[in-house]
Task: inverse folding
């Protein structure tokens, strides 16, 4: 895993790989405020606490 995940943040690309989602879907989640993202320069990062909150918001069927 990358250092950013260990530090509590991951890029959109890392998130997509981890959860097997497409870029477009992730950016749509961000746009709909279903997933919080922060900008760091040109990069969009997802904080671990926000990812955990997003996971908790999923129904049990969606988590599988």
Result:
């Amino acid at each position: 895993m990358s250092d950013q995940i260990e530090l509590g943040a991951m890029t959109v690309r890392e998130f997509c790989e981890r959860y097997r989602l497409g870029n477009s879907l992730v950016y749509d989640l961000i746009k709909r405020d279903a997933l919080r993202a922060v900008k760091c320069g040109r990069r969009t990062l997802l904080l671990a606490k926000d990812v955990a909150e997003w996971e908790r918001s999923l129904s049990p069927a969606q988590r599988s």
